[in-house]
Write a structure and sequence with these properties.
Shape: elongated
Number of domains: 2
Structural class: alpha/beta
Distance between the termini: 65 Å
Order of helices and strands: HHHHHHEHHEHHEEEEHH
Radius of gyration: 21 Å
Oligomer: single chain
Strand content: 5-15%
CATH topology of the largest domain: Endonuclease, Chain A
Number of strands: 6
CATH class of the largest domain: Alpha Beta
Strand order of the largest sheet: 3-2-1-4-5-6
Number of helices: 12
Length: 279
């Protein structure tokens, strides 16, 4: 099939965007203004360094009069199974040199144990077949392998206390999960901070956010809601997210205090698991 009909790689996709933009007589700056993206983002897409999200692709189709072309032929990543709204963020996660994530409700995917991840995937609102769950679980565990490198990416994990207190699965599952994070924190692989309930309202209370930095690309912010997610690369938006993160981090417990809280709550789950065994 001809390239203009089916661009399957980011490079081909970018070449096709450039061809259609130039055919429309638009500069990158002119196109960026019409589709509400930065010129830098357009340039990265055309160079094959980034992919648009679904909403970006729809706006490109609308402005360039390409039907549903750019939406339908978003680049296939590498066959890994993830939620549709997370595909773009997954690609960036692999390349990041630093990740700062805020977790309001659940342990972030790269920090999940197999048992915890299995409970999350089994308890979702959308029914999944065993095969779907297994594929999603395999990808989630593969994502955690970025922590096998002892130096990169640098990871800051900021947790709402609710993540520790909300039981996902059995007490034994929670105990294992919290101690896994303690081990990562004590080995200095990640920085751990907890926003205790006593803080009340804080700058990130409204949702999940992940900030990522790269060697040769501008930083991005990934913001997620219920079955939706958006990658932001506009400097003003990324800066706002970073400021909110920094403000929330200022309200959080120190790394040492946070690890102590993780240990304490893990012990509570351990005692609960032991009581369940003897009842």
């Amino acid at each position: 099939m001809a390239i203009e009909d089916n661009p399957r790689t980011r490079e081909q996709y970018g070449q096709e965007l450039k061809r259609r933009r130039e055919a429309a007589g638009l500069t990158q700056e002119e196109l960026s203004q019409r589709v509400v993206m930065s010129r830098t983002h357009i340039a990265h897409i055309e160079a094959g360094r980034r992919r648009p999200d679904v909403e970006d692709a729809r706006r490109l189709d609308h402005v360039l009069g390409s039907g549903e072309f750019f939406e339908r032929f978003l680049p296939v990543l590498d066959g890994r199974k993830v939620a549709e709204h997370f595909k773009g963020a997954l690609e960036f996660e692999d390349k990041a040199t630093e990740i700062r994530v805020y977790a309001p409700k659940l342990v972030p995917g790269i920090l999940q144990t197999p048992a915890y991840a299995r409970e999350v995937l089994s308890s979702g609102s959308s029914p999944k077949s065993t095969e779907e769950r297994d594929n999603l679980l395999a990808t989630r565990l593969e994502r955690a392998r970025i922590l096998d490198n002892s130096h990169s990416p640098v990871v800051w994990a900021l947790f709402d206390e609710a993540v520790l207190r909300r039981p996902i699965g059995s007490p034994a599952v929670m105990c294992e999960q919290l101690r896994h994070i303690v081990n990562l924190g004590e080995s200095h692989r990640i920085r751990v901070h907890v926003l205790p309930f006593s803080v009340g309202y804080h700058a990130l209370l409204e949702g999940f956010v992940s900030l990522m930095w790269f060697e040769d690309l501008p930083p991005i912010a990934y913001v997620e809601g219920l079955k939706s997610g958006r990658i932001w690369e506009l400097p003003s938006v990324v800066r706002d997210c970073q400021v909110a993160y920094d403000h929330a981090l200022g309200d959080a417990l120190s790394h040492r205090e946070s690890l102590a809280l993780f240990k304490s709550v893990a012990e509570e789950y351990e005692h609960e698991a032991q009581r369940a065994q003897h009842s």
